[in-house]
Amino acid sequence: MSALRTAARVALSLVIVSACRPPIGGSAEPSASSIAGSLVPSREVAVSVHLPGAPDALASSVTRAAGSESIAGSGVSVEIVIPYAGEDAFEVRDRDGQTDLFFATPAAALVAREAGNDLVMVAGLQRDFGLQLWSRSTRAPTLSELKGGSILVQGRPGDQAPLLAALAAVGVQPTDVEIAFPEDPSLPFDPYALFDGTFTATAVTRYDGAARLQEFYDLETGLPVGPEGTVEVVDDGGIVASAPGIGIWARRSALEDEDYRIAMALTLIAIADGLASCRDDAAGCAVVMEESGIVDRYGDGLLWSVNAFNATLWPAPDGALSIDEERLSAAVSQAVSVGLVGSAPSSADLVDRRVLELALAHLPAEIDLIGASWAPLEVQLPLE
Fold first, then answer.
1. Nearest CA to 15 among 66, 72, 87?
2. Which residues contact 222 (CB under 8 A, 6 or more apart)?
3. CA 284/CA 204 separation, integer angstroms
4. 282-292 and 299-310 are packed helices; what angle lies between their axes, rounded to 10 degrees?
5. Alpha carbons 274 and 67: distance in angstroms, whole number
């Protein structure tokens, strides 16, 4: 991990740290940033962006943002934080000059709120989560046949909400299946437990886990597992794939500090710049990520993942960072209906738009958050 962190520092001036390590703040005096003008905090602020797991294509916007110069000279530094085994994924550091943003699905944020983390959504990100349910071809080709089985979910508690809703729609209750998550979320997703029979099925993101499933080599035949191989997507009626996507969350208390709001807004601008750059130049984005050393994928496989991640965002008619309160409300209702949380907070209690409004007010005109003309690239996943 130390080599990975060093590579990220050298290549991108971006820091990847464990949640228990202190942040590294900026060294420059706050001044006008290169594209956000006079939007600067009165003191240096380090913003920790917490990913839900090991860096994958989801990290592309933050990785690319580090090189966008969108917050250069502002006194704001950005770091990526990944959760480690046994750690609270929503842990924050009580230290002056440091604040946090969390990438999380609505259901995961709700579970964290019930555990005592007072989170509010400050911006949207994905249009949909992009989950896919896969099984061995010889195991469970339909949802109803998963009853009594076990499912490995690429994610964290709460992320199984759309899966449980899909199962409930065919009469399979949450108590009828065993749900598990990777033991160490800091490690790239490993599909081996599906192939050795530990799990009946696995729910994975279609921009990361789906690729790893298809790239996996069958130990008995020595052949790669491909789309026509020994795994297949389970028909879930579209419920899992259409699940509300990851949003950007913050601690409610942190939003009462004006400097923190400004630092978060600058970070959103940098993320917006990264999102647009990775949309318009997916190949260049993949190269930046590969050279940074923060991901374990490379070449066309990484480009395939970036392209698939882009498909969970673009086009974005309301803007890539917009908060869709209707979809958020639906996600809340879903989490309650499957028993993950006990009560349904109102949108007014879940959303704080101050940071987003500040970011959009200073967003450079050249950053397009709609992407109306975006179309996916024709990229084949290398399976040899």
1. 66
2. none
3. 25
4. 120
5. 9
The helix, strand and coil proportions of the chain, stated in percent and rounded to the nearest 5, come to 35, 15, 50
CB 140 within 8 A of CB 149: yes
Nearest to 382 by CA among 220, 219, 233, 211: 211
DSSP 169-191: HTT--GGGSEEE--S-TTSPP-T
What domains, with CATH codes, occur in the chain?
A: 2-127+244-361 (3.40.190.10), 131-233 (3.40.190.10)
Cβ neighbours around 187 below 10 Å, total: 14
**Tens of pLDDT, residues 274-320:** 999 999 999 999 998 898 888 888 899 999 999 999 999 999 999 99
Query: How far is C-alpha 71 from the chain's CA centre?
Result: 22
Q: Are strands 178-180 and 119-123 parallel, antiparallel or unpaired?
A: unpaired
- Contact criterion met (CB below 8 Å) for 321 and 272: yes
Helices 161-169, 325-337: crossing angle, 10 deg rounding:
70
Rounded-to-10 torsion of CA 355, 360, 366, 368: 90
Which residues, in sequence order, are bridge partners of residue 134? 202, 233
User: Is residue 78 within 8 Å of residue 65, measured between CB atoms?
Assistant: yes
Contact present, 382 and 225 (Cβ < 8 Å): no
User: Which candidate, 259, 202, 267, places its Cα nearest to that of 50?
Assistant: 267
- With beta carbons less than 8 A apart as the criterion, state whether 342 and 17 touch: no
Q: What is the CA radius of gyration of the chain?
A: 20
CA neighbor of 382 nearest in space, from 147, 148, 219, 217: 217
Task: Using a cut of 0.90, tell me whether the model's pTM lies above it.
Answer: no
Distance of CA 379 to the CA centre of its chain: 22
Cα–Cα distance for residue pair 189/210, rounded to 1 Å: 10
Token pair in block for residue 270: 């940098």
Strand partners, 98: 46
SS3 273: helix
CB of 173 within 8 A of CB of 182? Answer: no
Q: Tens digits of per-residue pLDDT, 58-95?
A: 888 887 666 556 676 788 888 888 888 888 888 776 67
Residue whose entry in the numeric block shows the structure tokens 């879940």: 350
